[in-house]
Amino acid sequence: MQGATYSLPPLPYAYNALEPHISAQIMELHHSKHHQTYITNLNAALKSQQEAIQTADIPTQVSLQPGIKFNAGGHINHSLFWQNLCPANSSDAKPSSAPKLVEKIKATWGDETKFREAFKTALLGIQGSGWGWLVKVEGGKEDRLVIMTTKDQDPVVGKGEIPVFGVDMWEHAYYLQYLNGKAAYVENIWNVINWKTAEERYLGSRADAFKVLKASM
Amino acid sequence: MSTTLLRSFIFRSALRASASASSRKAGLAGTTFVRGKATLPDLPYDYGALEPAISGKIMELHHSKHHNTYVTSFNNATEQMAEARQKEDIQTQIALQPLINFHGGGHINHTLFWENLAPTSQGGGEPPTGGLSKAINDSYGSLDAMKEKFNAALAGIQGSGWAWLVQDTQTGNVIIKTYANQDPVVGQFRPLLGIDAWEHAYYLQYQNRKAEYFNAVWDVINWKAAEKRFK
Fold first, then answer.
1. Range(s) of the domain holding residue B223
2. pLDDT class for A208, splitting at 50, 70, 90?
3. Which chain B residues have a beta carbon less than 8 Å from that of A130?
4. Co-location of B136 and B200 in the same domain
5. Of B65, B102, B203, the CB nearest to A176
6. Can you give the three-state secondary structure of A107-119, one letter per residue?
7. CA distance A208 to A136
8. Domain that holds residue A165
9. What is the pLDDT of residues B69-127, one digit of tens each?
10. ipTM for the complex?
11. Which residue from A minimizes the CA distance to B98?
């Protein structure tokens, strides 16, 4: 049985397209080095896993799991992240590109400002490396929106959970430009959120949100 | 903990503990707690003194901004903890514990870290001697073999964290252990030597090439500090 091999999905914009909010240097390192390393390590771990399955080597299969979760999570998170960012001068960067999602945000948090405040508090409360996500949770009487933080590279893959957009809070995502001033990064990231992508994920299924991953196989 | 830098902090904590105990005994509800505060320790060398292994800019930000934020946030959390204790508000006391672990851990870890680094002109990189050297050889065969395992441990940290050479207080053996985020070395293990694997510790100089930082940092390790911690 031949396992999947993943490759780095191309960025949907140039490395400097998110300036001045995220520098070209950050974007280039983040995409071509950090994201690539997760993919390289994921492919290696999956290959070892295939061999361990073929030889019925259960201890090795178990020991590979944290590495698979970490590196697959890194691949998933970054793939979703690139897609949910866009240049600030694009019409996609306006919340008006996400009418249904914004309606739900207002119904959930009162108004957009309160939502952004809550999201910011969650992001700045992360202790160590991690991500903040707006997530649609399916099930129950109606779908809900929740803000989630995940540690390290844990991906949002729980039952009924569909990631709408995410913000990378690893230091490599902002340090070259913002240094220890991560609050300014969290403030500026709103200028480059791709609300059109967010709307599509909000209205779509999990398979829709993760289609970028299928495309990278 | 036996470090000089932490001693004053511990001493003040002890003062605080006795002060709050006596105010409880005296039943002085509503009075402000007399308590000491954690403070940012001075670096025992200049910001540029660890170059080229660690740049002056990294050292300055790391010490004056990052470490200082842990100190400030730890003081805030302990202040709120003191208030919650006085009000016997157990929920708040529990809610504050992760903050105390994180920011208190950040303060302890960085304080130990600055002390277990030194410029090469002040002995940085000179190999350990005596009991610690013997313990490392007993556990790992040689100093180089230990460094190799230590670097593998650093590289294997998934996210932010630290790697430490610790001493097991039960057996006396030295062991390499990694800790997530700012979890401090407490309990069964005694910290001997720590290396910060948070990205802020190396990113401005090494970016994604963290293995280069892990190799270079050994040039400025202060083994004398580790020897003093070893029992």
1. 121-229
2. confident
3. 159
4. yes
5. B203
6. HHHCCHHHHHHHH
7. 13
8. 22-217
9. 999 999 999 999 999 999 999 999 999 999 999 999 999 999 999 999 999 999 999 99
10. 0.94
11. A127
Interface of chain B toward chain A, CB-CB under 8 angstroms:
61, 65-66, 69, 98, 102, 158-161, 180-182, 198-200, 203-204, 207-208
The domain tally of chain B equals 2
What digits encode the pLDDT tens for the residues B200-218? 999 999 999 999 999 999 9
Angle B120-B125-B129 (CA atoms, 0-180°, nearest 5)?
125
> Is the pLDDT assigned to residue B23 strictly greater than 50?
no
- Residue A58: predicted pLDDT: 97
Q: With an 8 Å Cβ cutoff, are B203 and A175 in contact?
A: yes
User: Minimal Cα–Cα distance from B161 to chain A, Å?
Assistant: 8
Looking at residue B1, its pLDDT comes to 41
- Give the CATH number for residue B14: 1.10.287.990
Contacts B208 to A, Cβ<8 Å:
29, 33-34, 37, 172
Residue with tokens 């080597």: A57
Interface mutation vs chain A, best among B74, B178, B199, B212, most A CBs within 10 Å:
B199
Closest Cβ opposite residue B61 in set A70, A153, A180: A180
Strand A161-168 relative to strand A130-137, pairing? antiparallel
From B193's Cα to the closest Cα of chain A, the distance in A is 21
Compute CA distances A95 → A83, A90, A101, A198, B213, whole Å: 16, 11, 9, 9, 42
Residue with the two structure tokens 């019409």: A91
Structure tokens at B58: 């990294």
**B37 vs B107: CA distance, rounded Å:** 12
Q: Give the model confidence (pLDDT) of B25-47 as tens digits.
A: 333 344 333 358 999 999 999 99
The yes-or-no verdict on residue B2 having pLDDT over 90 is no
Of A173, A172, A174, A147, nearest to A161 by C-alpha is A147
Judge whether residue B10 has pLDDT over 50. no
In chain A, which residue's Cα lies nearest the Cα of B159? A152
Cβ-based contacts of A175 with chain B (< 8 Å): 199-200, 203-204
Among residues B91, B115, B139, the one where a domain terminates is B115
Q: How confident is the model at residue A140 (pLDDT cuts 50, 70, 90)?
A: confident
Nearest to B199 among A70, A127, A171 (CB): A171
Q: Verify that B95 and B139 share a domain, yes or no.
A: no
Q: Is residue B170 part of a domain?
A: yes
Question: Which residues, at least 6 apart from B122, have a Cβ–Cβ distance to it below 8 Å?
Answer: B45, B49, B222
Could you give the number of structural domains in chain A? Answer: 1
For residue B17, what pLDDT band results from cuts at 50, 70 and 90?
Answer: very low
Question: Using CB atoms, which residue from B161, B181, B200 is nearest to A175?
Answer: B200
pLDDT band at B165 (very low <50, low <70, confident <90, very high): very high
